[in-house]
């Protein structure tokens, strides 16, 4: 016969054990629901996007999911009156969008870009590349360099975000050799295609917190590290430095330099007269003997030893290096891919900006350098 069991005694758990157990549960829950995100600094977290639909000029950070369900997309409010555009953009923490149409990858361009002293966490990079063999090779090399800096570089070296676009149209000129690019017969089609690429890049990447847009060509390989601060210090709607090219001078038997960008100019009566006699689809081009315009070219205004901050008003600008206040683009100034007052692309952009009330300014003694093929 089984003996009846006596009363069961429950062992009392100490309060300390309960507290430790609760802490462990809370830690586990936190690890389960917390987002996996890159190691952002406080400054980066302050501008991080919370949802894929947020502006692409903000770095993306995944939102937390509770119970397997993501939260609703955020409603984001931006007050453009709070976006400052000043002559001291570093002190005012102003965001800069650096845009580069790229057909070939030049290591010198990338190395120079990394040397820019403007805080990288305030810089968004945007690239657009064509669907060509050279474009594919440039995209692969660009992605390699981006991975080095964004994944493995020091945090101060990393850029706020980087956007890469591929063109949805074919370039009219298959070769990007300098001799082919600059043939007069190729200019209208080539520059119309460039205008489309610039507009696609601009309209895709311009965010509501962008203060400045720096257009920097992919073959600009040498600039002062303070390029952005220097150009912004003039606080002009459009500011363009003088673009030169280093080369070996066979006559001097030494390295030398020569003017490169002839699209920075002041208009002339001759050019205006030529324009008045043109058909509606014709364009004026600069730097060609077959079409002498007698405009005053900033390329020839350089004075050795003169003040690098000397300013001159311009009627046309090039895009090798061009700093634009974001409000100029927001006002509607873009790059016409069609004859606009017989001008196209960057020169047409300067004309359109001027029609909107924005004056272009050139710095003839401030030099940047173009790659020499």
Automatic annotation (TrEMBL):
Instruction: Look up the record and give one Gene Ontology term from the biological process aspect.
Output: protein N-linked glycosylation
Residues crossing the lipid bilayer are 12-33
Assign the protein's first listed, main location to one coarse class: Golgi
Q: What is this protein called?
A: Mannan polymerase complexes MNN9 subunit
Query: What is the similarity comment for this entry?
Result: Belongs to the ANP1/MMN9/VAN1 family.
How this chain sits in the membrane, per its record, is: Single-pass type II membrane protein
Its keywords, alphabetically, are: Golgi apparatus, Membrane, Signal-anchor, Transmembrane, Transmembrane helix
* InterPro entries tied to this protein: Mannan_Polymerase_Subunit, Nucleotide-diphossugar_trans
State any single GO MF term.
Answer: alpha-1,6-mannosyltransferase activity
Disordered: where is this region?
53-73
Gene3D superfamilies assigned to the protein according to its UniProt record, in alphabetical order:
Spore Coat Polysaccharide Biosynthesis Protein SpsA, Chain A
**Where does the protein end up?**
Golgi apparatus membrane
Q: Name one GO cellular component term.
A: mannan polymerase complex
């Amino acid at each position: 016969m089984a003996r009846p069991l006596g009363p069961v005694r429950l062992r009392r758990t100490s309060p300390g054990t309960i507290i430790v157990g609760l802490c462990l549960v809370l830690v586990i829950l936190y690890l389960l629901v917390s987002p996996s995100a890159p190691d952002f600094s406080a400054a980066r977290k302050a501008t991080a996007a919370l949802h894929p639909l947020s502006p692409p000029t903000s770095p993306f950070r995944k939102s937390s999911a509770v119970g397997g369900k993501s939260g609703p997309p955020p409603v984001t409010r931006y007050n453009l009156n709070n976006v400052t555009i000043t002559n001291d953009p570093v002190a005012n923490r102003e965001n800069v969008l650096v845009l580069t149409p790229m057909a070939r990858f030049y290591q010198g361009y990338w190395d120079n870009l990394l040397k820019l002293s403007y805080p990288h966490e305030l810089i968004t990079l945007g690239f657009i590349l064509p669907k060509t063999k050279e474009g594919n090779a440039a995209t692969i090399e660009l992605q390699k360099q981006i991975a080095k800096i964004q994944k493995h570089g020091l945090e101060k070296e990393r850029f706020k975000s980087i956007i890469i676009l591929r063109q949805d149209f074919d370039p009219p000129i298959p070769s990007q050799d300098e001799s082919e690019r600059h043939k007069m017969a190729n200019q209208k089609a080539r520059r119309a295609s460039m205008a489309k690429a610039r507009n696609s890049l601009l309209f895709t990447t311009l965010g509501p917190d962008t203060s400045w847009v720096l257009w920097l060509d992919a073959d600009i390989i040498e600039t002062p590290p303070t390029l952005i601060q220097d150009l912004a210090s003039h606080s002009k709607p459009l500011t363009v430095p003088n673009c030169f090219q280093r080369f070996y001078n066979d006559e001097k038997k030494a390295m030398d330099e020569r003017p490169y960008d002839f699209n920075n100019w002041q208009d002339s009566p001759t050019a205006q007269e030529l324009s008045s006699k043109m058909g509606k689809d014709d364009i004026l081009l600069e730097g060609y003997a077959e079409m002498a315009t007698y405009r005053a070219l900033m390329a020839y205004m350089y004075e050795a030893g003169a003040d690098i901050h000397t300013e001159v008003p311009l009627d046309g600008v090039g895009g090798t290096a061009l700093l634009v206040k974001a409000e100029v683009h927001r006002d509607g100034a873009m790059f016409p891919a069609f004859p606009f007052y017989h001008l196209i692309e960057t020169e047409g952009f300067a004309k359109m900006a001027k029609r909107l009330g924005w004056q272009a300014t050139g710095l003839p003694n401030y030099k940047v350098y173009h790659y020499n093929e």
